[in-house]
Amino acid sequence: MSYPTFWGTFIVLGPLVYYCDKKYNMLRDNGTESPRPYSFARVQLAWWTVIILVSFISTIILRGGAPTFNTSTLYLLGISSATTIGATLIDISDQANPAVTTLGQNMTSSGFFLDILSDKNGVNVHRFQTVVFNIVFGVWFIFEVLCNLKTQNDINYIMPIISSNNLILLGVSSGVYTALKTTENKQVTASPAPPRNPGPDENPAAVASPAVGAAHPEIIADEAKPQG
């Protein structure tokens, strides 16, 4: 009975988050383009809120009592909340800074995963790291809750206790993301090199398509022969 109850609650809350995002941009940056890009910090906060709330509601339904949150669970929500607050303040600061001309939050969405893994210059490693850590620990948390709903007699221990070192790992990962986010909008936006105009003694075809000339030098040689 624990599995249907847990996943049934998850199925109720998951679409609710999706609806709020579609209607109110709950998981997206405060940008000017449409659709707005997804915000990793907001997605992280929603991810842990849904997991912990589903675990809490499932325990009430199946055990008839409200569990007391252990300290590690509160720290986990605190890490996610602090990350969201920090990221929001950084975005507000960048928007008010006239020296920052290109804002990542004002770019069009590239899709859910690309948005949370990327800044304005593409996918970067610190975002990848914290996304992977949050997914892994989230899946582990769900697995532990499902097991404890069947075997744990004390409702206060159905939600697993996260070790101090694991909390430090998640905190450091989110802290690195927040710290490096302060530099993302200040980076020079990557752009392709402009085409080069041919010189007076250069063949325009060779400049426009150097690969053809390099692979087939006889083409350039034939063009250079006098006709007639």
Question: How would you describe this protein?
Answer:
With 228 residues, this protein is mainly alpha-helical. The chain folds into two domains: 2-184, no CATH class; 195-228, no CATH class. 64% of the residues lie in helices and 2% in strands. The protein contains nine helices and two strands. Strands 1-2 form a two-stranded antiparallel sheet. A hairpin with a 2-residue loop joins strand 1 (118-119) and strand 2 (122-123). Helix 1 packs antiparallel against helix 2, helix 2 (40-63) packs antiparallel against helix 3 and helix 2 (40-63) runs parallel beside helix 5. The longest helix is centred in the middle third of the chain and has 27 residues, at 125-151. The protein is elongated. The termini are far apart. The model is unreliable at 210-215 and 217-221 (pLDDT under 50).
Main attributes of the structure:
mainly alpha; 64% helix; 228 residues; two-stranded antiparallel ribbon
**Order of H and E elements:** HHHHEEHHHHH
Fraction in helix: 55-70%
> What form results from the Cα inertia axes?
elongated
Number of β-strand runs:
2
Quickly count the helices: 9
Layout of helices and strands, plus pairs?
Elements (H helix, E strand, L loop, with lengths): L1 H23 L15 H24 L7 H26 L15 H6 E2 L2 E2 L1 H27 L12 H21 L19 H5 L1 H6 L1 H8 L4
Antiparallel strand pairs: 1-2
